[in-house]
Structure formats: structure tokens, C-alpha cells
Design goal:
The complex is a heterotrimer of chains A (233), B (318) and C (295). Chain B is an all-alpha fold and 318 residues long. Chain B is 79% helix and 1% strand. In chain B, helix 2 packs parallel to helix 7 and helix 7 (148-171) packs antiparallel against helix 10. With 295 residues, chain C is mainly α. Chain C has a two-stranded antiparallel sheet with strand order 1-2. Classes of the chains: A alpha/beta (233), B mainly alpha (318), C mainly alpha (295).
Chain lengths: 233, 318, 295
């Protein structure tokens, strides 16, 4: 479904990615792990269109995403939950979710999508009219995920969804992600919490210093120093 | 001394000689007045450039220094002070203003500094217009002894002075500091360069030289409204000339000033004010596509030509 | 006793409403796109001249020619955005603000001189049959035209407020202001949002200009004057609050009137009061009276 080949990308004069390659098949839950600052977020940003690659290709269902602006990429079926959630604090939970269904296709089924999201996150329904800025960290993350789902993505990318959350909350969120995957949404999960990521995903990639350092199933990945130390540490 | 430097100095001397002999050769008053206008703009634009181009602080109230200098000089000179002292006084009054507004103004960063100085300039403009609404006319004896030539040489001398000071300043350590502040203020600070000190110094230098320019203006004009040199149009014109010529260079303001006056004269007969429209368009084009102005354009052309020449030279002979 | 003071106050409020309207237009553009279009005053002027022409050439009442004036300004706004300002979108914020400031200057020079050629330097105004009418309430004279202007300004701002709060597109604009990356990855076309906001701001300037041409007068050099007013009020009121900005406009209008009344020979110091207030607010409370603390 998603195929990235030899991706180079960077910020002004600073190159951040060198020949990154990865693949995600339909229906999978794939993890992207690696140390801080390795380039995981950068990779997601290139896929979403927030950052233009300097070379290499990103193909989604056969289409080259290279020149597309971010909003077009959402229309094509990729949604991203940015690092930190980034909900619109000045608006209510409900308004945030409504906005999530901005693409025309999603707008048509907005009512059903809302029902779906509220079913999955009853806490959000309880706080429907509350301003997003008043939510707790975990609730905001739920809102961010729910909002991304409103666009009815085929591929959902999550950037560090467990960051800064209490362990109980982390478990809840991770369970939700598995559930979302089970309901048919392909997932690309970026996580620094390697243990959690590898529990969910059957396959993963390791990114170190802007390069794909390796790929494999849970067991192979244990061969990597960074993975091992994170797991044991 | 390198050959380049010798050539440059020689050209400079030739240029100055040409300018010095201009009124002697061409005894045409209107040409001399035109030359004075160019020199005035060179001075105003170069002084703005010190703070705006080299230190990167867009001062939209530059006319305040120009006006204050002209006001002080005019008042003192008419009341009998010797010219040199009046001019210096004009410069110093401008510096006093610079110091007064410098501290609070530099608490504003970036665009806030620009609109803050715009407001300050306007305040002075309106206030002077209220306090001194009557035209300032030369008393009879000054009128009788009015000669154009000394005024031309004053402008020439001051213009050389201002460009010279700017040049020296820019090539000094201070100048380096100023440019560091322009590029990356925070990074400069972390290297021990006091941004505030450099900005203030640039502001004071800019103010003093603009004040002198104002003084020359006051000496030159027979009658004018004291409010006139405070008008924002002087700031904007000076700024645009610097941009079109190339901010952050010494030649930029000079080229810009020359260009402005020439275009104005060329179009003055048929399309009055059209030169301003053209100027505005050019200014926008420079901001959008050619941030280094004509100076940069010239450098690019030279590079392209040099490359062409090289590729010709490296071709095997037929 | 109360007469002249109240009269002064009322005139301050009436002109302040226009200040507020102009400022909201500028705020709309700057708040969303971070373009500081200092030719805002000149666009306001164009609105005034558009209604002037509609009136003197076609005999259309200025309040009726609003649609055409707005259309005219919308077209200009789209052209200006596509040709000039859209190139600035990708720049980092500081550079964006500074470059658009410079472009605005060039633009204001061009528009000013175009106006000079087309309409000469004379003061122009739209004088209709009812221009001189006024109602007198409690000893205070209220010119009908300026009252209507107040009403129109309020209606426009209320409409804008509702648009931003209640409509889907309006919320998309607010979302973009809050976090443009999050908005982008949700499928919101940032370029369209920028264009829409810019055009809205320009349209508001046009409306304000029409009201100025009816209630006051217009001439080619009024641009800077009104840009400054808009800037002052925008900073006074703080970004992000339409009503706050409007109140800021009223505050400026009333302060100017009060100053001109209280300071002897003060009529001429109206300008200065506003500017001094502006500088003080910039230095002491940059988020304005109603804005949220940014830094």
C-alpha cells in the first residue's frame, strides 16, 4: 500500500534522511522505531506532504505522492496524528472532530464517522462540548486520534501517541490502536516506547541517524542495540 | 597593494574630480541643483542603510533625524551661528533623539521596531507641523548673499564624508558585529556580541549623518516649511533607493539615488508622478526576486559573463 | 454643559467604528497569513473611490453600490494575492512579515500615485441628498450617514464573527490560525484559507472606504493615515478578537476626540494622541488590551 524508496529529505541546509526505504502492506500494523532525533518524525512529515523530499519516492496505492500538497494527501487516504496530538485548543471536542472530516469524501459520511469515533472513545462523547484546551493529556491524544479517523483514512500514521502519558493511559491508547487496526485501518506507528510498539506490531523498521538501519519481525529487531537497550532499559 | 585596489582608488579619485569640477565646467544652475538632489538622496539613503541595510533594523522613522537636523541647523544658523557649528549641532540633536528613543525602541524586535519607528516619526512630523506651522524664510541678508556653488560643495563634501564614514564603519569590527546582529541576532549574542550596543551605535551613526544631511538641506533651501523634512516620504524614498541599489552595500544607496533622480527627470516632462509608480514596481520586484538590488544583479551578470568566458577559453582551438 | 463633551464623544465613537472596521480587515489578513499589508489604507481608499465613481458617473447611491465596490475589491484582492503575496507563504514568519511590509510599501506608492493620476489630489466625497441630515438626541447631533456607517460596521463585524464561529469554513480558518500544520494534515487547503482571509480583509477595507467617502472625504494620500489607524487599533485591540479590535477602534476614536477637546489648540494633536498610545502599548503591553499573551 505504502512504499517509500531511497528517500532523502532535510530542513534548509540540514539533511535529515538518507535513502530511507520502507513498506507497509494493506491491513498491517507496522512500527517505526529508533532513538530520539533519528528521523522518524521527518519521515512521517514527508509522507504527509509537510516536507518535500529532495530525492527518492513515496508511493501510495501506486500513486506518487511527491508533488502533492498536504490536503491532497489526506484526500488520497492518509491521515497523520502529529506528535503531541496538536488539537485545536480554542474549539470544543465536537468541533475538533467535525473539522477532522474536512475532505469532501469524509464530509458526506460525517455523521456516521462521528458515531463511530464516539463509540470508540466514550470519554470524548462525555466531554463533547468542552473546550479541547481543558482536556487531560490522554483525552487530548484520544481526540487527536479520533479527529484523524474522521477523515476515514486508509492509512493512519501516529507519531509518538504515548508520549507524556501515564502508563495506564498509554495502555488504553495502545489498545485503541489495535482496535482501529482490527477494524480495517492500516497503521504506521512511530514510537520511542519500543516495548509498546513491538507488542502491537508484528513488523517494524529501525531508523538510526536518518537511515533505515533494519527491518524485521519482533524477534529480528531484538538484534539491534538501540532496540535491545530500550527494551531492557 | 593589489591591482584591483589601485584601479578602484584611481576610479574613485577620477569620480571625485569629475564631481568637483562639474559646476565649474557646466555653469548650468539647474544641473547643479539636480546634482545636489542626487547628493542629498545619496546621503539620506546611505545613512539609513547603516541601520537598515547593515544592521538589519528597518527604521521607518528616519525622516525624524533628517528633520531634526534641519530644524536645529536652520534655527541656529539664521540666528547667527557659524555654519559649521550649526551643522554639527544638527547632527548632535539627531543623536540625542536617537539615544532617547533607542532604548525603548530596541525593546521591540523585528517588525514591531519598524512600525514603532514609523509611529515615532509620525509623532514628530505632526507635532512640528503644529508647533511651527509658518514657513521658514531666509532673512534678507542671507538671501542677498545666497550662492549656489558653496552649497553644492557642501553637499559634495558631506556626501563623501557620509559614504566614507559608512565605508569605514562597515569594514571595522563594529561593522562585522552589526552584520552578525542582522543575520542572527541570538547567535550573535551567544558569541558575546551585544546586540543592543551595536544597534544603538548604528542608530546613532545613522542619526548623526542624517542630521548633517538635514543641516545641509536647511542651508540649501531658501524657504520651506519646518515640517517638510519630517515627512515620511523622505524615509520611504531613502529606504527604497537603498533596496533598489542594494542594501548592505556601500554602492547600493548611491546607485539607487542616482537611478531615482534620473528616472524622475526622464519622465518628468510627460508623465508626472509616473516615476513613482515605476519605482514602486521596481521596489516590489527587488523585494520579491532580487534582494540584493542592482548591485547583486550586476554581480550575477559578471559571474555569468565570467563563466561564459571560461567556457570559451577551455574550448579546444579550432 | 454636557453638550459639547457629549457631542465630541459621539463623534469619537462614530469615527472609531470606522477605525475598528479598518483594523479588523487588517487583523483578518495579518492574524491568519501573517502578511503585514501596509497598503491596507490604500485599499480602503480604493473602496472609497469606487463608490465615488459609482455615484458621480453612474448615479448609484453609495449604500446601494456596496456589492459592486466589494466585488471590485475582491478582484483586486485575488490579483494581489496571486501575483504578490502568495510567494511569501512559505517563508519563515519574521521574513514573511518583513517582506510583506516592504511589498506593502511599494504597493502603497503605486496605488497612491495611480489615484493621483485618476482622481487628482483634490478631496473627494460622496454627497447625497441626505448627506446633511441629522437627528438630534439629547442635544447631541447625530449625522444620519455616520450613524448608518456605525450600523453597517457593526453588521459586518457581527457577520464576520458568526462566519468564523459557526460556519465550517470559518472554523477551518480559525484552525489554521491556531496550528497550520495540524490543519494541513486534516485536509484543509492552507492556500485557500490564506486567499480567503486575505480577500475578506481587503473587502472589509473596501467597505470601510465607502463609509469614509460618504461620511468624511477621501484623497490620494489618505492611505498612510488609515493604515496607521488600522495598525494602532489592531495592536490596541490585540489579535484574535474581532469585538476586541472593534472596541479598540472606539477607544482610539474617543481618545482622539477627548484629547482634541481637552488639550488647548488640541484639534491638531488628535493624531499624536493615537500614535503615542500606540507606541506605549507596543512597548508595555504588546498583546494589546484584549489579546492573548503570545510571548
Amino acid at each position: 500500500m505504502l512504499e517509500i524508496r531511497e528517500l532523502d529529505a532535510g530542513y534548509s541546509d540540514l539533511q535529515a534522511l538518507w535513502g530511507v526505504s520502507l513498506q507497509v502492506q494493506e491491513g498491517e500494523l507496522v512500527a517505526l522505531v529508533g532513538p530520539n532525533g533519528a528521523g522518524k518524525t521527518t519521515t512521517l512529515r514527508v509522507i504527509s506532504g509537510l516536507l518535500k523530499a529532495t530525492s527518492g519516492s513515496v508511493r501510495f496505492q501506486g500513486c506518487d505522492l511527491g508533488r502533492e500538497p498536504p490536503h491532497r494527501i489526506v484526500e488520497l487516504g492518509i491521515s497523520q496524528v502529529l506528535e503531541g496530538g496538536r488539537v485545536f485548543t480554542g474549539m470544543s471536542v465536537h468541533e475538533n472532530l467535525e473539522l477532522g472530516a474536512f475532505p469532501a469524501k469524509a464530509r458526506r459520511v460525517r455523521a456516521q464517522s462521528l458515531k463511530w469515533v464516539y463509540e470508540m472513545f466514550p470519554r470524548l462523547e462525555e466531554r463533547k462540548h468542552q473546550r479541547a484546551g481543558t482536556l487531560s493529556g490522554g483525552e487530548r491524544q484520544m481526540l487527536a486520534i479520533g479527529r484523524a479517523l474522521m477523515a476515514r483514512p486508509m492509512l493512519l500514521m501516529l507519531d509518538e501517541p504515548s508520549f507524556g502519558l501515564a502508563p495506564l493511559m498509554v495502555q488504553q491508547i495502545l489498545d485503541m490502536i489495535v482496535e482501529i487496526n482490527r477494524q480495517g485501518v492500516t497503521i504506521l506507528l512511530v514510537e520511542q516506547n519500543v516495548r509498546a510498539a513491538l507488542e502491537l506490531a508484528r513488523r517494524g523498521y529501525v531508523i538510526e541517524n536518518g537511515r533505515t538501519a533494519g527491518e524485521g519481525t519482533c524477534d529480528n529487531l531484538m538484534d539491534f542495540e538501540c532496540v535491545r537497550s530500550a527494551y531492557l532499559g | 597593494m593589489s591591482r584591483k585596489l589601485i584601479v578602484r582608488v584611481a576610479l574613485l579619485i577620477m569620480l571625485l574630480a569629475f564631481l568637483a569640477l562639474l559646476p565649474v565646467v557646466l555653469k548650468n544652475d539647474s544641473i547643479i541643483n539636480l546634482a545636489i538632489l542626487v547628493l542629498l538622496y545619496v546621503m539620506l539613503s546611505s545613512s539609513w542603510n547603516i541601520l537598515g541595510g547593515y544592521t538589519g533594523q528597518t527604521n521607518l522613522g528616519h525622516a525624524a533625524f533628517f528633520g531634526l537636523g534641519s530644524l536645529a541647523t536652520r534655527l541656529l544658523w539664521i540666528s547667527g551661528w557659524p555654519l559649521a557649528l550649526s551643522l554639527l549641532a544638527g547632527g548632535f540633536v539627531a543623536v540625542v533623539l536617537a539615544l532617547l528613543i533607542g532604548f525603548p525602541a530596541f525593546r521591540l524586535r523585528g517588525v514591531y521596531f519598524a512600525i514603532g519607528t514609523l509611529a515615532l516619526g509620525q509623532i514628530l512630523f505632526v507635532t512640528v507641523g503644529n508647533v511651527l506651522p509658518q514657513i521658514s524664510a531666509l532673512p534678507a541678508k542671507y538671501l542677498a548673499s545666497y550662492e549656489l556653488l558653496p552649497r553644492y560643495y557642501l553637499f559634495l563634501g558631506l556626501a563623501v564624508l557620509i559614504v566614507g564614514v559608512a565605508s569605514v564603519l562597515v569594514h571595522s569590527r563594529l561593522g562585522l558585529g552589526m552584520m552578525a546582529v542582522r543575520e542572527e541576532e541570538d547567535a550573535a549574542e551567544s558569541l558575546g556580541i551585544s546586540a543592543l550596543r551595536h544597534k544603538l551605535l548604528a542608530l546613532c551613526a545613522s542619526a548623526f549623518l542624517a542630521g548633517l544631511t538635514g543641516g545641509a538641506f536647511a542651508f540649501y533651501h531658501v524657504g520651506y516649511y519646518p515640517q517638510f523634512p519630517f515627512a515620511p516620504v523622505w524615509t520611504f524614498d531613502a529606504m527604497m533607493m537603498a533596496y533598489i541599489g542594494g542594501t548592505g552595500t556601500i554602492e547600493g544607496p548611491i546607485i539607487g539615488a542616482l537611478f531615482y533622480v534620473v528616472v524622475k527627470e526622464l519622465l518628468a516632462l510627460k508623465l508626472v508622478e509616473f516615476h513613482l509608480i515605476i519605482f514602486g514596481i521596481l521596489f516590489i520586484l527587488v523585494v520579491l526576486f532580487l534582494p540584493g538590488g542592482f548591485v547583486e544583479a550586476w554581480k550575477r551578470v559578471r559571474k555569468a559573463l565570467a563563466r561564459q568566458l571560461k567556457s570559451f577559453q577551455s574550448r579546444p582551438s579550432p | 454643559m454636557l453638550g459639547p463633551i457629549a457631542q465630541n464623544l459621539v463623534f469619537g465613537i462614530l469615527v472609531g467604528a470606522l477605525y475598528g472596521l479598518a483594523a479588523v480587515g487588517l487583523s483578518m489578513v495579518f492574524g491568519v497569513t501573517k502578511f503585514l499589508n501596509v497598503a491596507h489604507g490604500e485599499l480602503l481608499m480604493l473602496g472609497g473611490y469606487a463608490s465615488f465613481w459609482a455615484f458621480t458617473l453612474l448615479g448609484v447611491d453609495p449604500f446601494l453600490s456596496f456589492p459592486s465596490t466589494i466585488l471590485f475589491l475582491v478582484i483586486i484582492g485575488v490579483v494581489l494575492y496571486k501575483v504578490l503575496f502568495s510567494r511569501m507563504v512559505k517563508l519563515p514568519e519574521e521574513l514573511k512579515i518583513r517582506n510583506t511590509l516592504l511589498i506593502g510599501f511599494g504597493l502603497s506608492l503605486i496605488l497612491q500615485n495611480l489615484a493621483l493620476r485618476l482622481w487628482t489630489a483634490d478631496d473627494r466625497g460622496v454627497t447625497t441628498a441626505y448627506s446633511g441630515w441629522a437627528i438630534t438626541l439629547l442635544g447631541v447631533r447625530l449625522p444620519i450617514v455616520r450613524l448608518a456607517s456605525l450600523g453597517i460596521a457593526l453588521v459586518c463585524l457581527l457577520a464576520l464573527h458568526l462566519f468564523l464561529r459557526r460556519t465550517y469554513t470559518g472554523k477551518a480558518i480559525r484552525a489554521t490560525v491556531q496550528d497550520w500544520e495540524a490543519a494541513a494534515v486534516m485536509g484543509i487547503d492552507i492556500h485557500k484559507v490564506y486567499l480567503l482571509s486575505f480577500v475578506l480583509g481587503v473587502a472589509l477595507a473596501g467597505i470601510a472606504g465607502t463609509l469614509v467617502s460618504v461620511g468624511y472625504s477621501i484623497e490620494p494620500s489618505m492611505g498612510l493615515h488609515w493604515t496607521l489607524k488600522a495598525l494602532i487599533v489592531m495592536v490596541l485591540g490585540g489579535l484574535g478578537s474581532i469585538m476586541g479590535t472593534f472596541v479598540g477602534g472606539i477607544v482610539l476614536g474617543v481618545t482622539e476626540s477627548a484629547a482634541s477637546y481637552l488639550i488647548p489648540g488640541g484639534g491638531t494633536y488628535r493624531e499624536v494622541v493615537g500614535l503615542v498610545l500606540f507606541v506605549l502599548v507596543l512597548i508595555l503591553r504588546p498583546q494589546g488590551l484584549f489579546g492573548a499573551k503570545e510571548r
